[in-house]
Amino acid sequence: LQDTKAVLELAYDAFQAIVVECQEERSQTQNKEKAIEILSEEISFTPEPCCSIIRMFYYDQLSMEHIANIIHYRNADTAKTKKSQCMKTLKKRVKKALKNAGIELF
Question: pTM for this one?
Fold first, then answer.
């Protein structure tokens, strides 16, 4: 009877650990989904030309040279500099939105 009780206690402890792990994974998944939603919202509110540059580079996977031609920038370096500025601003906005949502990823 004593051995059975010990085995049950170990099984219960293992079960509790599994439940906690599942809750943590679910929480992480929910945070990731919310973070993606926030990122999507922030990108949609990004003014031009930043919105187009980010979309063309990350979603359409166009080269900086191609983006420069489309937006009529002098060269790829100019487009790259602008993309860097846009991403810096976007990152600040996303970090603030995530913090307001209670999510800290960075």
Answer: 0.70
